[in-house]
Amino acid sequence: MNFQDYSQSKTFTATAVMQLQERGKLRIDDLVTAHLPWLAQHSDQRWRDVTLRQLLSHSAGVIRDGQASGFWQFQGEFPDEDEFKKQIMQSQLVFEPNSEFKYSNFGFGLLGLVIERASGKSYADFVAENIIAPLDLKQTTAEYSPEFYMATGYSRFDLQQQRRPFQHVTTGVLQPATGFCSTAHDLAKFFAALQVGSGKLLSDASKREMQRPSWQVADEANAGSYGLGIDMAKAKDGKRLVGHSGGYPGFIGRTWSRIDDGITVSVLANAYDTAPGIVANSILGIIDQFGDASDKKRRKFEARFVNDYGVYEVVDTAKGLRGLWSNDWQPFNMAEELEIVDDTTLKIAKGNHFSYFGELMKYEFDAKNKPSAMYRSGAKNYVSLDGDVRI
């Protein structure tokens, strides 16, 4: 099922610009006016100093969404090229170029026009031929199309605990900033291709240039850095992440690709009041808990149990048996360390001091030697669920 990706589109656009640089069609340190001469007529003469690199790194000082941005809330259609140019020419730069990080969808709209002029193709055709087709992204397009099986985006809950469905939108000249539709599978495939050493889409030199921090971003909502059409962060364990997020009423998503080991995770949701960034980070954290080693003695205790509080899992990790509540997006944050006492008993060696820390967990096994029940503090509170016992 396809989701509208919105600002994750920017990484596709940055990749296209870097491809054109590698082919000698432009340089990212070119002035924008060298490719879009009409901008030289702007009343704000600072526009003459704006470079492609500054647009890619959100440091040109360009207004974020134009002078009439109601289209971000279904109040009218996204601008076409003529309306876009009109609003650009009516807008002064908000900051001096290269003085502040200021996120701008209109800046990436300009990059789309540069790509068209430098390549001689429409933006959609260029990215289809040079990014989508080479990676065989079968469910990816630069713009919404009713031909795709699309998820429906929904509003937040109202006071009656109901969600309202939203219509799909086309994004006009802002496709390069926010137009793409895709699946989590295709997005993970695309961002994995941007890993240095993948041999796909770009040279390693261009990928390093994209992923080199241009601006540190540290405010109440964000903590990380931004390169060229791609953002960066460090996980709690210090591992480096590159990727992008995107959102619009009804859709929100986050893709992270881990530089250290190449693992890439993409999470898409069809309601804005969800937390795909937390989910993506949690998935990466869960993956890190498991290694290649398998201990038969430990694995016999693996099971999923349920009670009125939720689902409790015993899993064999790289560091030993752990007990956790898997109805939490970050289940290992408060995982209990479990030690084998005998063939039917585990001890909670480390865990929440307000819970059963230090006590025993007694198992019952069925005729196939599979866990059928577990007792904590003498009470048969947990019953094994059918199905796969792994997370």
CATH class of the largest domain: Alpha Beta
Q: With helices defined by DSSP (H or I, 4 residues minimum), what is the helix count?
A: 10
Q: Kindly report the CATH topology of the largest domain.
A: Beta-lactamase
CATH architecture of the largest domain: 3-Layer(aba) Sandwich
Based on CA atoms alone, the radius of gyration comes out at 25 Å
Q: What portion of the residues fall into strands of 2 or more residues?
A: 15-25%
Rounded mean pLDDT score: 92
In the predicted model, the low-confidence regions spanning at least 5 consecutive residues are 387-391
Class by alpha and beta content: alpha+beta
Q: Count of DSSP E strands?
A: 16
What does this structure look like?
This protein has an eight-stranded antiparallel β-barrel with strand order 9-10-11-12-13-14-15-16. The chain has a six-stranded antiparallel beta sheet with strand order 3-4-5-6-7-8, sandwiched between helices. It folds into two domains: about 5-285, 3-Layer(aba) Sandwich (Beta-lactamase), CATH 3.40.710; about 295-385, Lipocalin (Beta Barrel), CATH 2.40.128. The relative contact order is 0.11. The model is unreliable at about 385-390 (pLDDT under 50). A hairpin with a 4-residue loop joins strand 3 and strand 4 (about 225). The chain has about 400 residues and is of the alpha+beta class. The longest helix has 15 residues, at about 105-120. Helix 1 (about 10-20) runs parallel beside helix 4 (about 105-120). Helices cover about 25% and strands about 25% of the residues.
